[in-house]
Amino acid sequence: MNIDFLEDLVKDPRARRSVRSIIKAVEKLIDSGIGVDDLNITQITREAHVTRPTFYQYFSSVSDAIRATTADRLNEIVQAAPIADSDNPWPGYEKFVIRPIIEALIPHEKFAASVISGSNSIKTLELLIDGVADRLSSVPAIQAAIDNHKDLPNSNYVKMVAAGLVWRIKEWLTVDAHTSRDEIAAELADVLNKAFSGN
Predict the structure, then answer these.
(1) How far apart are the C-alpha atoms of 196 and 160, rounded to whole Å?
(2) Per residue in 146-198, pLDDT tens?
(3) Could you give the angle at which helices 155-174 and 122-137 cross, rounded to 10 degrees?
(4) What is the CB neighbour count within 10 angstroms for residue 113?
(5) Which DSSP symbol is given to 132?
(6) Is residue 159 within 8 Å of residue 133, measured between CB atoms?
(7) SS3 81
(8) What are phi and psi of 99, to 5 degrees?
């Protein structure tokens, strides 16, 4: 998801600029080290140079603005992780799926750790699970694996796999400092191998 999705929701270009300013303000504040539970509307409106009524015109709460900001950052991470174009199932998920995502995530790891650790992170995690599921579904090799194994369940199966990946990445970013980047990539790739290749 990109904040350009606002073009469909907010027709007025000036309104879109206000919303983008709010999203970028939230992003900057979280990147500066402010925890999502400590973020408040005064900080956001000051940083975005908008009024409180303007904020509440588009977001029902600070948590709502955080989720929109997370969606924008997720889009940035996904765009930075190329999708392998082979439509043949292969066991190379680490090289072609996981490692690009991990490498794209690293510059945003502090932001990611913050938004998935807040007290109101459930909806944010749901957003991330949906995003990762969409990403997995767009990988030709995974789609081919599903097509070639008719016994695999529907898209809910992909979403369950995505939920497992998001949970493990959350653990890695927040409490599992001893696991290296290479180790987490190999571990997550093994999950995909077992989920979609039967290996």
Answers:
(1) 12
(2) 777 666 666 688 899 999 999 999 999 999 889 999 999 999 988 888 888 75
(3) 120
(4) 17
(5) H
(6) yes
(7) coil
(8) -60, -40
**Taking the alpha carbons of 22, 24, 28, 30 in that order, is the dihedral positive or negative?**
positive
Q: What are 26's two structure tokens?
A: 């939230």
Distance CA 8, CA 167 (A): 32
* Eight-state DSSP code of residue 154: -
CB 162, CB 136: distance < 8 Å: yes
- Cβ atoms of 181 and 106 within 8 Å: the answer is yes
pLDDT tens sequence across 77-101: 888 887 766 555 555 777 778 888 8
Contacts of 25-30 with C-beta under 8 Å, sequence gap 24+, read 26/65, 26/66, 26/68, 26/69, 27/69, 27/72, 27/73, 27/111, 30/66, 30/69, 30/111, 30/114, 30/115
- Give the residue carrying structure tokens 């599903």: 146
CB atoms within 10 A of CB 116: 21
Q: Where are the beta strands (DSSP E) in the chain?
A: none
pLDDT band at 145 (very low <50, low <70, confident <90, very high): confident
CA geometry: angle 2, 56, 35, nearest 5 deg = 65
Is there a contact between 167 and 187 (Cβ–Cβ < 8 Å)? no
Domains of the chain plus CATH, in order, are 5-64 (1.10.10), 84-197 (no CATH)
d(CA 24, CA 21): 5
Residue-wise DSSP of 56-75: HHH-SSHHHHHHHHHHHHHH
